[in-house]
Amino acid sequence: MDVQLLGPLAARLHGRSVVPEAAKPRKVLALLALRAAQVVPVPVLLEELWEESPPASAMTTLQTYVLQLRRMISAAMPDQPVAAAKDVLCTRFGGYLLNLGTGASDVAEFTHLGAMGEHALALGDPDTASRLLRDALKMWRGAALVDVEVGPRIGADLQFLAEQRLTMLEQRLDADLQLGRHAEVLGELAALTSEHRMNERLCEQRMIALCRSGRRCDALLAYNKLRKDLATDLGCEPGKRLRRLQMAVLNSDPALDARPGRRPRLLLG
């Protein structure tokens, strides 16, 4: 089975969709697909479906949803016995497991590419890192599971994926800055710092890109805006790392003009 979760929910077996129309069976499939090859305990499924107020018939209803999913899976395997669906959506002690077999998951591919990109960056290979991280980020087709009613368990998993996505984006921008692509990422960083206005790492990257583009004053304005937002909303100052960068900009520190392919000293640590 091939599943796509980084956008609208899609699950296909032998080219046929096995995504149900009804909201609650979709949630069951989505949660099992998010945790493919792992046993999802029954209490976790019940919490996702009904949060803290499951009906008296919750267990029977969950089993009905599983049966509906298995029927759709079976219909996508007309040459296989009906029982074969149980090898795809498996019953395990205390819960259920979705077995993708040789199929693909966009979440698994996203995570794999991101880990390879992070490793390449750590090894000092920004070109490979940028390519791999771009490929990972391209796996997203919009908001994850945008067409699924999200409960507490799916919501927690999606928050984790969103944090992963932002981290990979920051790493890809680090790689691009090392490659001397400061002019190329300026527009992207302007949008990102507007969306994540108190993210110090993105502000740091934007300040460096602005300095390398001959816009030192704009870099200082970006710092001042972040400082004002932090003081107004949280009553705190930027971290030591960003304050150090501000001083480097004020002093025209040569480290800001690191050659392509070398990680600037100010981005270390």
TrEMBL record:
It comes from the Bacteria. Pfam families: BTAD, Trans_reg_C. The keyword Signal does not apply. Residues 1-100 bind DNA. Keywords: DNA-binding, Transcription, Transcription regulation. GO terms for biological process: phosphorelay signal transduction system; regulation of DNA-templated transcription. Residues 1-100 form the OmpR/PhoB-type domain. SUPFAM superfamilies: C-terminal effector domain of the bipartite response regulators, TPR-like. GO terms for molecular function: DNA binding. This is DNA-binding SARP family transcriptional activator. It comes from Labedaea rhizosphaerae.
